[in-house]
């Protein structure tokens, strides 16, 4: 006998941003989003950076609708539709197996989705990974689907599959043409390396670049360095990176993180026509990190850059205050001096004169808008408190 159906359901989840230390760049299948190489990332804490998504289904909704940061958006985007289709397929499969769900939600009801970031989209922080991880988490909860969902999030954006888990996460490229083995896997939980800290240097200036999807396709088509990287360099580096993480070896972790970011940007230069994500400021930050490490005689900070000009710095808790001060002296805030450092608290340091003299060269006022201090964190979360839903009982955005 058919169980009684619910007429309405609503679920809210949050999901994190992740930053790759072994980069994903290049697909072998554009539709399924299958990568040419495995990658490895650190999931960032949702206290500082997160996406929140509410998904609702109702007998009374006339059409599927989507709101991004309060603005209605196109629900027909192929990648969003792929995620929706896959979650519904898993729901159907599950019910076909052991249909004991007390009150299943009708899979043909229209849905409303509202999603919001707790960080300014204009800051150019990668939001598609958190966005798709959050969408898939919320839809899965809505339809009662459990278990491995990184495969579904991958269909939204490749890097999104890594945001389905907390801590240190590997996305295995897999071998199968159908992508069933191209999934995220946790290498270590967020509690594994308690001293590890992350500083996001949000930079000023233009944000019009080649998008990742288009950029990596051009690289696959034209860069011999990318081919060599995927076939030879990444497999070696992945094994090494996992060892550094397991041993909490910051020297090894930091060096390899910087080298892999640099090689990713080298493949961009090797792309034809070339793609430039690093700019003068990125190069100043890179040089600053190397001067800082040279002064200390070891790797104290490690930078990494994605397909945009913001810098992400990995360091250990005991180095945060000193490095933040060095950044403040190197890129003195133009206006927002009091809000220059956000996120986790940072102590006020005493900077040795010889460090300043050796590390801070010609200051560039206003180049860094602010620094966000965060750390590794857990995977997507379900919000139990109904007051946190982004949609009201009428299924429309609350604000
Ligand atoms: C440079 O995941 O945004 O951030 O799969 O086409 O959506 P699509 O690309 P996306 O690419 C991210 C590239 C990167 C490196 C990384 O995160 O590994």
Compact overview of the structure:
By secondary structure, the protein is α+β, with helices and mostly antiparallel strands. It has nine helices and 17 strands.
Molecular structure report:
Pathway: Steroid biosynthesis; cholesterol biosynthesis. Belongs to the diphosphomevalonate decarboxylase family. By secondary structure, the chain is α+β, with helices and mostly antiparallel strands. The chain folds into 2 domains: 9-190 and 381-388, Ribosomal Protein S5, domain 2 (2-Layer Sandwich), CATH 3.30.230; 196-374, Alpha-Beta Plaits. It has 9 helices and 17 strands. The chain is globular and about 75 Å long. The chain starts with 7 loop residues before the first strand and ends in a 17-residue tail after the last strand. The mean pLDDT is 93. The structure holds ligand DP6. The site of ligand DP6 has 15 residues, from helix 4.
């Amino acid at each position: 006998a058919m169980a009684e159906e619910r007429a309405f359901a609503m679920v809210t989840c949050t999901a994190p941003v992740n930053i790759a230390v072994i980069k994903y760049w290049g697909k072998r299948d554009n539709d399924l989003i299958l990568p040419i190489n495995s990658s490895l990332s650190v999931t960032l804490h949702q206290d500082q950076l997160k996406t929140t998504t509410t998904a609702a289904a109702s007998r009374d909704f006339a059409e599927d609708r989507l709101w991004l940061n309060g603005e209605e958006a196109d629900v027909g985007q192929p990648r969003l539709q792929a995620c929706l289709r896959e979650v519904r397929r898993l729901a159907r499969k599950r019910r076909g197996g052991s249909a004991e769900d007390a009150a299943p939600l009708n899979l043909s009801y229209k849905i409303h989705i509202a999603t919001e970031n707790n960080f300014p989209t204009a800051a150019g922080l990668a939001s598609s990974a958190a966005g798709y991880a959050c969408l898939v988490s919320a839809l899965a909860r809505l339809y009662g689907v459990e278990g491995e969902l990184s495969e579904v999030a991958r269909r939204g954006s490749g890097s999104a599959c890594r945001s389905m888990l907390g801590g240190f996460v590997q996305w295995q490229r897999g071998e199968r043409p159908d992508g069933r083995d191209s999934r995220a896997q946790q290498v270590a939980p967020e509690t594994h390396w308690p001293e590890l800290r992350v500083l996001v240097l949000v930079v000023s200036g233009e944000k019009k670049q080649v998008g990742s999807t288009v950029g990596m396709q051009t690289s696959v088509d034209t860069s011999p360095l990318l081919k060599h990287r995927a076939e030879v360099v990444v497999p070696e580096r992945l094994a090494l990176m996992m060892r550094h993480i397991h041993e909490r070896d910051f020297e090894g972790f930091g060096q390899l993180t910087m080298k892999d970011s640099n090689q990713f940007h080298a493949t961009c230069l090797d792309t034809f026509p070339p793609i430039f994500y690093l700019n003068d400021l990125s190069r100043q930050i890179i040089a600053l990190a190397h001067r800082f490490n040279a002064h200390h005689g070891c790797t104290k900070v490690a930078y990494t850059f994605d397909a945009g000009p913001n810098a992400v710095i990995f360091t250990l808790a005991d180095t945060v205050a000193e490095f933040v001060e060095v950044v403040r002296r190197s890129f003195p805030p133009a206006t927002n001096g009091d809000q220059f450092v956000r996120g986790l608290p940072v102590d006020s340091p005493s900077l040795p004169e010889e460090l300043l003299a050796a590390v801070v060269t010609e200051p560039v006022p206003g180049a860094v808008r602010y620094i966000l201090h965060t750390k590794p964190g857990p995977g997507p979360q379900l919000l139990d408190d109904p007051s946190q839903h982004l949609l009201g009982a009428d299924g429309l955005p609350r604000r």
